[in-house]
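Lay summary. Proteins are chains of building blocks that fold into shapes, and those shapes determine what they do. In this project we predict the shape from the chain. Here is one chain we studied, written as its sequence of building blocks.
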Amino acid sequence: MSHHIVEVQDLSYTYPDGAAAVRGISFRIHHGESVAVVGANGAGKSTLLLHLNGALTPQRGTVRIGDFPLTKATLRDIRRTVGMIFQDPDDQLFMPTVFEDVAFGPLNLGLPPEEVEQRVLASLARVGVEHLRDRPPYKLSGGEKRAVSIAAVLAMSPDILVMDEPSANLDPRARRTLIELLAGFHHTKIIATHDLDLVLDLCPRTIVIREGQIMADGPTRDIFTNDRLLEESHLEKPLRMQACPVCSGSMARKTEDAGSVHEH
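And here is the predicted shape, written in a compact code that computers can read:
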């Protein structure tokens, strides 16, 4: 069974106000790949991701998750295969306690209580927040909420993780913890993000979207060294690939000083 494969063919979606969010997108992602989807605000990244777990269904074209084409009849199977982590954890966390939030999905699968508890505890332990099991989610920090939202998805045992801006609103330490956590997952991962340094850490392949269309699809470092592509897509190089302005200024001054010494 090819249950880890994600295939999108000629996908298009227009919102009721007439805004064309996705226009003829096609790609194929294989088992175990980690793929970034990048683009400026309004490029269509979130709309694309919402099709991958059936939150939206194609108006034109097809989405296939493994052996299942995305239709209303296959939604249950697809949502068991694809775990969706939304940009705002508050969109996922709504139960009185962390334990109940993480248990919600497995319970809705009809699993026996003993297996649900095992899944919840294992998922919380995997993201390092088992000590939060009895806390109300609204009292957690941003990083803790993000970890719990990931645990809630992992408790469903998905084969594919789809994430929308997973590092948004995290402080540097929480962001680093998140990257280390995601690097340890052997799931197929699809990550839409503005955090291009995170992409360098996690995603060997990057898909660039502009105005609802794919501009490029290839090795991440090739894409991030293509200055013309980045400019046309309204993207900046990851910080670690940019020249440090302070260092550049210092080097320029040293060169000028050296030149002055040489001249005299």
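What the prediction tells us: The chain has one domain: 6-263.
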